[in-house]
Amino acid sequence: MLKVVLEGHDNYYGLQDVLRLFYGQTREDRGSKLIICDSGPDTTIVSKADPSSDLPVNRQVKRDLYEQISEMEGRTFPWGSLTGIRPTIVAREEDYDYQKLISRYLVREDKAKLACDTARLEYQIAKKASSGLNVYAGVPFCPGRCEYCSFIAEDATKHLNRLPDYASALIEEMNELRPFINEAPGTIYMGGGTPTVFDEYDFERVVTALGEVFKAGEDTEFTVEAGRPDTITQGKLKAMRNAGVNRICINPQTMRDETLQRLRRSHTAKDVIRAYEQAREAGFSVINMDLIAGLKYETADDFISSVKRVMALEPENITIHTLYKKRRAGMSREDVLNSDGRGDIDRAVREAYEMLKEKGYVPYYMYRQKDTELSLENTGFCKDGTYNIYNVAMMSSECSVLSVGAGAMSKRAFTGGRFERCANVKDVSLYMNSSKQMAQKKISFFDLDRNLRGR
Ligand code: SF4
Considering the domain boundaries, does residue 125 fall inside one? Predict the structure, then answer.
């Protein structure tokens, strides 16, 4: 059993993040200033604040502990002692100097460069996004639940009768806000779940209301996360174009049919290609496609093969996720993290990034989640300046987002990086009975009657 004694600081949270990288579960005994890893070696480490270090104490003690254990175990991790979800924030604080990420946080060179490159572009995009309001509309329904998902999505196949009422509630919430919207927001994003799960009639009325209420114009970045290709029809694509939608996400996650089937995604790689071609025919000039590295049921080489097949389609944006353990997902932690037999996911992700770079894609946003293979990241790539501003806005503390729909979280940014949140009720039934009140709550949260930009 490994014991870590804290001296001169109380960064229990940060040290446990480091310990979890190596040993999984930890527990703490604050009375004795101890963190315990039952699966660690039989030894005790003293973690001390070092007044001579120029790193803030919380980061210094994490780095020192990481270094000690890494030497003891003969093992390193790509992100070194950086365990937070936003490595790009640290890159910005370190003046985009990748050498500092290597020397001060023991980050591997390729990740240090990735963080700095991404941070530069991410910061420019965040500045754009912070000058106006960003709008999100949430549809927490999906046509069945993927095995790795824990999202609050309702399985639409079991609730088909609720979709028209949900569409009406969403429109009601938007209409309540209508008198307070005088100019188009910078971005509008319809996400989920799977927004295209509605039938054509309901989808059209929701997307049309979204465009009209928020006055989508030519300059508005208007995205629909169409997600599952099997829900995309020509009628829905036409409705999107008519409403002013200029970007769409078609997410294969993998192009291997066997994996798709075992993950309970009811579509094939062929469906992805069909939806992609239809979206192009409908006039979409910016398409994003998501892929996941480290999926259960497939190898690192299967992932690379999916990346190649998606790249052959030449979408403007490709987002590479790493499978992570979601709290309420059907997959267990072991299913996600015990990747024996799946090959070297780290190598596969690096190879994918190289291939993307060669074809002119650049990284523009990045975040990490807990419980991923080797604590790897998710990175959004774009080419020719086609980045999605909303993706950056939703993560940035400097950008306001007004959100509608069940469980939707609004965020109001104030100068100096401070922000406040305002949540809609999560429960779909409760939301359907209170969508007008949700709108009223936001009118006062954003002071919409006084300050239409919500800033
Ligand atoms: S489509 Fe996305 S949100 Fe829906 S169940 Fe699958 S992973 Fe979850």
Answer: no
For residue 429, tell me if it sits in a domain: yes
Note whether 196 and 94 are same-domain residues: no
Check residue 195 and report its DSSP letter.
G
Residues 56 and 158 in one domain: no
- Look at ligand 1, atom 5, and give the residue with the nearest C-alpha: 145
Residue 433 and residue 378 share a domain: no
Query: Could you give the CA distance from residue 444 to residue 399 in angstroms, rounded to a whole number?
Result: 18
Ligand 1 nearest atom to the CA of residue 227, by list position = 1
How many independent structural domains does the chain possess?
A: 3
Tokens of residue 306, six digits: 């999916």
Ligand 1 proximity of 142 Cβ (cutoff 6 Å) = yes
**Is 94 within the bounds of a domain?**
yes
Q: What is the pLDDT of residues 208-251, one digit of tens each?
A: 999 999 999 989 999 999 989 999 999 999 999 999 999 999 99
Q: Tell me the CA distances in angstroms from 359 to 119, 137, 289, 318, one per residue in order.
A: 20, 33, 15, 12
pLDDT in tens, 248-283: 999 999 999 999 999 999 899 999 999 999 999 999
- Same-domain check for residues 136 and 229: yes
pLDDT in tens, 330-380: 666 566 556 666 778 999 999 999 999 999 999 999 999 887 778 899 999
Q: How far, in whole angstroms, is CA 307 from its chain's centroid?
A: 19
Give me ligand 1 centre to Cα 120, in Å. Answer: 30
User: Quick one: 135 and 245 in the same domain?
Assistant: yes
Asked whether 329 lines ligand 1 (CB < 6 A), one says no
User: Which protein residue's CA is at the shortest distance from atom 6 of ligand 1?
Assistant: 146
The pLDDT, as a whole number, for residue 227 is 87
Check: CB of residue 412 under 8 Å from CB of residue 271: no
Model confidence at 123, pLDDT cuts 50, 70, 90, reads: very high
| Domain interval for residue 320 | 78-120+292-388
